[in-house]
Amino acid sequence: MFYITAIVGAIVFLPSIALNIALACGAPLGMYAMNGRHRIVPKEVRRAFVLPIITQFVALFTILSAGRVLPETIPFGIIRILAFFFAVYLTFYTATVFFSLSYKERHVMGPLAAASTICFWIVAVGTI
Q1: 27 φ/ψ sector (left φ>0, alpha ψ -120 to 50, else beta)
Q2: Are the CB atoms for 108 and 1 separated by under 8 Å?
Q3: Helix residue ranges per DSSP H, the chain
Q4: How many domains does the chain fold into?
Q5: Of 31, 65, 70, 92, which cross-links 36 as Cys (Cβ 3.0–4.6 Å)?
Q6: Could you state, in chain order, the average pLDDT of each consecutive group of 10 residues for the chain (128 residues)?
């Protein structure tokens, strides 16, 4: 069961990664992030998307490893800690998305964030 949940969680998490990569590259998708402040994220702000993109790839690796979709390359105890860390982090992130001033961020990214958060929690609890 956790295998399928990890795959579903990874799939619903991918649009968030794709959005951040697109925003870092200057795509006009700003209404889906940062409270919709900018249609196109200013060049000086785009560099700030690099660390979240790396973090999201680590989270993607974590959910797939915790769900035992990927082979064990890191000790499972560390994966378990990371799984709970990202589950808690995504819980707070999802709350901020649902309180966004941007309609598109709330109604498009909100459900995706909620779905991935639920999957992260299921997989994290499944590591116990």
Answers
A1: beta
A2: no
A3: 2-24, 43-46, 50-66, 76-98, 103-104, 110-126
A4: 1
A5: 31
A6: 86 89 79 69 79 91 91 89 94 89 82 92 90
